[in-house]
Every structure is written in C-alpha cells, then in structure tokens.
Amino acid sequence: MPRDHIIMDQLAHADKYYAMHPAFTKAFAFLRQKSLEELPLGRHEIDGTRMFCLINKAQGSKPEGVKLEAHRKYIDIQYVIAGVDEMGWKPTSACTQPDTAYNAEKDFELFQDQPQTWIKVPAGSFTIFFPQDAHAAMFGDGIIHKAVLKIAVE
Q1: Which domains, ranges and CATH numbers included, belong to the chain?
Q2: Per DSSP, which regions of the chain are E strands?
Q3: Could you tell me the mean pLDDT of each successive run of 10 residues in the chain, 154 residues long?
Q4: Is the pTM of this model over 0.90?
Q5: For 51, which of 13, 46, 64, 66 could close a Cys bridge (C-beta 3.0–4.6 Å)?
Q6: Residue 24 three-state SS
C-alpha cells in the first residue's frame, strides 16, 4: 500500500499496527520487554530468519552525504531506546539516483536521492519502513541507542 508519509508512533500505541502484518504482535511484544535497553549490541534471534533484532548504539551523525537505503525481503521496525534519531524517508518509487544495485544476500540497495521528509523520532517511539520506503537513520546529536527489528515480508 503506497503512502506519502512515514509511520511513526509511540510504543504505547503499537497495538494499532498489529493488523499490518501477522508478525507485528510478536515484534512489538519483543520491544516491550523490560530488559530491552540491557541487550548487548548486535543481532538477537526472535524467529530465525523470519524475525530478528539488531541492537545499535552510536553517536548520531550529520546528514551530509546521506544515502537512502531500501529493503525488499524485510520490513524494519526501528525503535529508539534512548536519544533522538532524525530519520529521512522517501518512497522507493520516487528514488531516481541509485548508488548501489540491490544486494539480495544482504537485502539492501542504496540511493543518492535526498529524503523527501525528515522526522525526529524520540526515545519510546518507533518507525515502520516497508519495502516501498527508502530511509536513512542514525542522524542527530548525542548517542542514539536503538533496536531495529527485521521482519520477513512473506
């Protein structure tokens, strides 16, 4: 379903999105665990290759030279644990400047297009990026601590 905006909300309202994908109930339950902020950096298995979480914590950067990324096999739910992540978005269908060809093994492609929209995502909030959403993240001041759930489209 094409959209002209980013999906962003607070984790407290996640139940509104359960109907968008059969795995979203399990995905948001994972994000609601009390020890999420204590998980070590790296990959955490939830349901094999069908759903896993990447925990990242890094200094936010400036958006100079930003490249949008897009996926075909996975949906991203990007949840900000601490800090503020300023994320860029543009419909993949509107991206006209490919930077790299699609890498099926790593499920990503990059674009040199500039984001159509920027949104500040504070701690306790999430974004959902589907395959039709080119996106860029980890921009801002200070440390950004986040969980990125990768959910198989099919």
Answers
A1: 7-152 (2.60.120.370)
A2: 7-10, 42-47, 51-59, 68-70, 74-82, 84-91, 109-111, 117-122, 125-129, 133-139, 143-152
A3: 79 96 97 95 96 97 92 98 97 95 95 96 97 95 97 94
A4: yes
A5: 46
A6: helix
68-70 and 7-10 strand pairing: unpaired
> Residue 29: CB partners within 8 Å, gap ≥ 6?
none
- How much is the pLDDT for 63? 86
Environment class of 150 (CB within 10 Å of its CB; exposed 0-12, middle 13-18, buried 19+): buried
Compute φ and ψ for 52, nearest 5 degrees.
-150, 165
Q: CA separation (Å) from 12 to 18, 32, 83, 127?
A: 13, 9, 18, 13
Cα gap 129→134, rounded to integer Å: 8
Give me 58's structure tokens.
């890094």
Tell me, what amino acid is at 151?
I
